[in-house]
TrEMBL record:
It comes from the Bacteria. SUPFAM superfamilies: Adenine nucleotide alpha hydrolases-like. It comes from Pseudomonas reinekei. InterPro entries: Universal_stress_UspA, UspA. Its main location: cytoplasm. Required for resistance to DNA-damaging agents. The keyword Thylakoid does not apply. It is found in: Cytoplasm. This is Universal stress protein. Residues 19-145, 177-300 form the UspA domain. GO terms for cellular component: cytoplasm. Belongs to the universal stress protein A family. Keywords: Cytoplasm.
Amino acid sequence: MSQTQRLLLIAPPAMTRTPAFDRAAALARAMQLPVHIVAFDYSQALAVAGLFDPEQFALARDGYLQAHRQWLADQAGLMSKHGVEVTSEVVWVQHPFEEILSFIKEMPLTLIIKDAQEESAFKRVFFTPLDWQLLRDCSVPVHLVTTPLNARPRNVLAIIDVLRDEDQDHVFNDQIIDAATKLAAVCDASLELLHVYDWTVVYAQDMGFGALPLATGLYEMLGTAQHEAFAAIAERHGVPPERRHFMEGAPVPSICEFVSEHDIDVIVMGTVQNKGLSKLLGTTAEQLLHRAPCSVLAIKPGKMLQS
């Protein structure tokens, strides 16, 4: 297997061209990287039928896989016309996440790109079990695409948390900003940096320990300290003042409102697995991912987006 860095596009099982195809093609051109497209096929009903007639099962499966391979090859051909080096394959597998882990071991991947799966027309809950596995346990940055607009992102938003109180967490903020900066640079997009100060969380934590509510003045001091920390990290990364946004309020509604007002195409954020829990960093990240106000690029601690 080639050791060239590449993008991995996970195509949907249905033979339908989705926004992730256009996003992968645009990023491949911008980053000058090849793309490998993989689709995972499996039919439980067909597998059960195969127990009674293995020969017919094999014929039906192979016929479908061949049709899917040809369809992916046609999509790869469309990308190739725009100067993108593309390979593709279809894999018959019941549990695709394990297969994705094999891809990660076999080839150097810069980014995994996949459509986020819409499950509700009323509440934008996009994430399927495979999406959550990728966000929680995948070592490679994961880009979940939610909109067909702007194949090449025009506006990128980095979200950081200056409440991180350990050295490694401070480094994680740097990694998030670095990834967002690289994405914006290769796409010739604008970069915005955002931190939302939620003083109610500090208040709730204080009350949870059974102490008296902190004085209003102390909350203001904490907010000032966070603002100064935010300004310092923005200065360190060369983010101009007009691109720095320090907001007070409930994080998820504030972020969603910001995304809408600034026509953000991609949120770059950090995700980690809480110790002993099978969920993502805090309720803010979890709720934000559920609501998916735009496409998401999730970065893990220690994992950089290659440029």
